[in-house]
Hints:
Layout: E1 2-9, H1 21-24, E2 30-34, H2 42-54, E3 58-62, H3 80-100, E4 105-108, H4 112-120, H5 122-135, E5 140-144, H6 148-156, E6 160-165, H7 189-201, E7 204-206, E8 212-214, E9 219-221, H8 229-243, E10 246-247
Parallel strand pairs: 1-2, 1-9, 1-10, 2-3, 3-4, 4-5, 5-6, 6-9
Antiparallel strand pairs: 7-8
Helix pairs in contact: 3-5, 4-5, 5-6, 7-8
Amino acid sequence: MEIDLNCDAGESFGAYKLGLDEQAIPLVSSVNIACGFHAGDPRTVRQTVRLAGRHGISIGAHPSYADLVGFGRRYLDATPDEIRDDVVYQIGALQAFCQAEQAPLRHVKPHGALYNAAADDPAVADAVALAVKEVDRRLVLVCLSRSAMVEAAERAGVPHVEEAFADRAYARDGKLVSRRLPGAVINEPLAVAERAALMVTEHKVRAIDGTLVPILAETLCVHGDTPGAVEVIRAIRARFDRDGVTVRPFREGGR
Length: 255
């Protein structure tokens, strides 16, 4: 068994430091780097690309709504054309730094509210998929499992993989529980490791009401800004070692 383990990175901004990139990045196989709209700045982007390249970690763009104050977790009333152009802009910014550091850009994963909107709204999902296709149709779109994003990627002819979240609570319909609700984020290392193992070995996730929901996980996300994120990732890696699960980047070209 194999799985890609990804985390968000490069989310510091100016004098403000967020996340433990130096410790977390070497423990995963892929990173999603903020592109300046919800977090990150040019210097942070370059340093994060350089850090990932040094450790041989697969690099992806992490575009969002233009929402620095809300960390990209607020929904904006943007049209599909506006979303497409914002995503093209952000991918291009990260792509330039990847070229400067001679580190290939391999995937795109929307952030926060944009990710959730694309998972539910076909128009938003189509805008994101089209943006990826316009920049480089070889880039892999990371999609919430069983969501509108998967269907949009298929319509656009964009390679894609399906994602699950080891440290987030799920509803019984397979959607993520809103961060505004209690229990939405899980940060106890052994509990997250147990969930990750269930996702990979049995292709299921236990929803917040206790039901088991089928899920396809080709990449698992752990949030780098979650309290104790490094300990959580280490617990997942230890559990995967015990279960014989190999952590490596998803295959080039996705599906």
